[in-house]
Amino acid sequence: MFEYIIHVPFPLKLKDCESDEISWMKVAQYNFDPGLQIDEEINLSTHFGGWGDKPFFFKKARVVRKDKIVISQKGGDIFRIDVFVEIADKEDLVRMREILRKLNPGKFED
Rounded distance, CA 105 to CA 99, Å? Predict the structure, then answer.
């Protein structure tokens, strides 16, 4: 089996999380390799929240990391490529943070 997953930075920290590492959130998954390369710029459109919330359109997203992972498991192995994308416009991350806080009150640090 093959998985290709695109992640963006998760702009919030859970209250009970002790790690200072950047968290990532899956925004897309494919069963084929679109061939993205490190430092390649892409446009990324995604939606968080209710349908009344405006979708996000990240005009300048850049691939910063690409991990290839083999997961051996009963019933069939998985070859997964995880692609990590940095968002150039930090204002979009602020808006994303506000929507996620609204949807999950009390779950994240201030």
Answer: 10
Which sign does the torsion angle of CA 30, 57, 35, 77 carry?
negative
The tokens describing 106, both together, are 């009390």
pTM value?
0.75
Cα pseudo-dihedral 81, 86, 87, 93, rounded to 10: 90
- pLDDT value for 11: 62
CA distance linking residue 36 with residue 67, whole number of Å: 12
Place of tokens 């390369």: 37
Q: What is the DSSP string of 89-108?
A: -HHHHHHHHHHHHHHSTTSB
